[in-house]
Amino acid sequence: MNEREFLENYDPRAFEPLAVTVDVVTLTIREGRLKVLLVERGEPPFAGRRALPGGFVRDDDLDNAARRELAEETGLLPRVHLEQLASFGDPGRDPRMRVVSVAYLAFGPSLADPVAGGDAATALWADVDAAGPLAFDHDRILAAGLERARSKLEYTPLATAFVGDEFTISELRSVYAAVWGEDLHAGNFHRKVLSVPGFVESTGATTERSSQRGGPRARLYRAGDARILHPALLRPAREEEVR
Amino acid sequence: MNEREFLENYDPRAFEPLAVTVDVVTLTIREGRLKVLLVERGEPPFAGRRALPGGFVRDDDLDNAARRELAEETGLLPRVHLEQLASFGDPGRDPRMRVVSVAYLAFGPSLADPVAGGDAATALWADVDAAGPLAFDHDRILAAGLERARSKLEYTPLATAFVGDEFTISELRSVYAAVWGEDLHAGNFHRKVLSVPGFVESTGATTERSSQRGGPRARLYRAGDARILHPALLRPAREEEVR
DNA sequence: GCAAAAGTGTTACCTGTACACCCATGC
DNA sequence: GCATGGGTGTACAGGTAACACTTTTGC
């Protein structure tokens, strides 16, 4: 291949038009259940269907594009953990043209209701088990995000991104219960969290007037400096997942 | 936003030209060491520098684009495990124009020498510790691929993708040693591999005339049907990684 | 015989799990 | 007192790590 052919091949306009978008799977916990942030599409295709918030990549890098979309379409921004999930580029995933989507995964503590803006007609928190069917291939993207979140709870302190700056071990346990969809033994969970170095550190304080019906005041903790949990908090193994 | 504005925004030609490429981190084991497949660039920018094989996304989906690149540029194809790694889209990562790269990770057993083809002037297997500096941001992509590979050896039967259809436990151990960069205790490794359900299954046969200097004939195994390893084979924890 | 590598036995230790239990508090 | 939930003790099961040891082959 000579120089001329090389540069021709390098021009994307020589190929089928191709767009790059970011779509964001934003998870939080509300009412003890895991919720995902969705928007309702106002335009075809899939008008009226729910979809993940997203938009086109412009001049900024991919991470910033995801952060911008989250802010523009929903008004959410502060204190969200954001990471890249995967890319989806099947031809035909958007009926209009070839679109490659870089999906992102975001976690945040329960905040105010989302504010619709940008392209989004309305924005809402939906239960993850009752979210679909979504527009495009967003069901698949959501499923990938959920699996990633469930897995990362095991070996990273990600759960602390779902709670406030100060939290009780019980609040942390309810995060695990909501994301994994199963209850955890309170006593063992408590001991295990405290035994992982750098996961949480005590503030010395306790909850003030507890909103609970009874019981002692729980001690308050903040996130520690560990980036990975060792030893990990493993989900109870399910037989069908092993083989 | 009305329909007209919407469609305008939807046209990628209204924005900065944007290309999508796939770049592939292909790993194998040769001479007991972990190697990565590289090509030597014939054209600027970075002419003469090594780079990951890759190319533009055309009509096929991303997975197929990665498979095609691997075949075109290197002549390798059969029996490679291929999975998406991550996407890289920083503005300026390619000095010519905006390029979003979807990186893939491939593993295969040691095969014939790669065949240069397509854009690649030459293709070669390089030691992973002596691969860089690579063109573009490929050092970063390679680092991401290595970390993914090291991590996946722990909880998936990925190591079996580095060996032939039938293999000995020792061969499998040498895969772990090469990828993790540390020796493992032969006896304990042996017992552990056999204790994980579905990791390997015996063929009943043994090695014929062993090429080794002495010792008994090793039994042969093939990959089992487990998709995840339970319990996992954890790397020895390093203190600096914990916090 | 000797060296090398496969494979096994044994033991000490460590972690996760289950379950019982105590304690502090609100009502 | 009694219910509720935070927090701890303890015993058992299972996995890990270290190390010695036996077995089988090539030279």
UniProtKB/TrEMBL annotation, chains A, B:
Keyword Hydrolase annotated: yes
Pfam families linked to this entry: NUDIX, WHD_NrtR
InterPro entries for the chain: NUDIX_hydrolase-like_dom_sf (IPR015797), NUDIX_hydrolase_dom (IPR000086), WH-like_DNA-bd_sf (IPR036388), WH_DNA-bd_sf (IPR036390), WHD_NrtR (IPR054105)
Top-rank taxon: Bacteria
SUPFAM superfamilies in the record: Nudix, Winged helix' DNA-binding domain
A molecular-function term among this protein's GO annotations: hydrolase activity
Ranges where the Nudix hydrolase domain occurs: 19-148
UniProt KW keywords: Hydrolase
Keyword Hydrolase: yes
PANTHER family named among the record's database cross-references: ADP-RIBOSE PYROPHOSPHATASE, SLR1690 PROTEIN
This protein's name: NUDIX hydrolase
